[in-house]
Amino acid sequence: MLRRAVTASFVLALAFAAAGANEADADEIDSVKSHFGFKLQTRWGKSFAGRFPRAQGTVSSLPDGRRQVRLQLDTRAVEMVGSKRYSEFSRSEKFFDAARFPSIDFVSDPYPDALLHKGGDLSGKLTLRGITRREVFVVAPATCAQPLHECDVVARGSVRREDYGMDAYGYLLRGSVRFNLNVRVRPQDET
User: Fold this and answer.
1) With contact defined as beta carbons under 8 Å apart, do 104 and 95 qualify?
2) d(C-alpha 76, C-alpha 60), whole Å
3) CA atoms within 13 A on the CB side of 18
4) CA 81 to chain CA mean position, Å
5) pTM of the entire structure?
């Protein structure tokens, strides 16, 4: 009986140690140096730019050497550049519905470090307005030796509005939202 208790305690201690190691191996996204935006386009070609001034997340190093991104964009703070009225619309129940769904969440699939250097597709699960779907963002090739630290990791992706119940004003707006993500992490000594 004592041996089972010791074994269970040992397994529990390993689980807590692994959880602590995972936290230690995660870099926090720098919400000051990172920029998260989106664009909407009208049916006649005019574009409107929006941004998420409040965001948080991590880039974790996994035990197998791959990485994983977890990102949360605060829809309650979303702004349409230059327009208070359009900012209010973007937060309304007809668009991001910030009162009911205060964040947009993205959890990437594990990816190799080379993706940050060479660029390519980054897939994962996007949760928007309470609906989770698989989406793909395209990461641009890095412009420096240490992406995330010395330069932004730039990713772009489009989602269909109707897939997330954002089909209001279909007669005015085209059917997609184009996301623009420029990501940096905080230096370890700042976390």
Assistant:
1) no
2) 26
3) 8
4) 20
5) 0.83
pLDDT band at 3 (very low <50, low <70, confident <90, very high): very low
Q: What is the sign, positive or negative, of the torsion defined by CA atoms of 83, 87, 88, 93?
A: positive
Sorted by sequence, the CB contacts under 8 Å of residue 147 that are 6+ apart come out as: 116, 117, 153
Calculate the alpha carbon distances from 44 to 83, 171, 173, 174 in Å.
19, 10, 9, 9
Cα–Cα distance for residue pair 64/29, rounded to 1 Å: 21
Cβ burial, residue 6 (10 Å; 0-12/13-18/19+) = exposed
100-113, pLDDT tens digit by residue? 999 999 999 999 99
Residue 45: what pLDDT?
85
- Token representation of residue 60: 């974790």
Lowest mean pLDDT among 84-88, 89-93, 118-122, 170-174: 170-174
Give the pair of three-digit tokens for residue 97: 């519905």
The whole-angstrom separation of Cα 160 and Cα 154 is 20
pLDDT of residue 114: 96
CA distance 36 to 180: 6
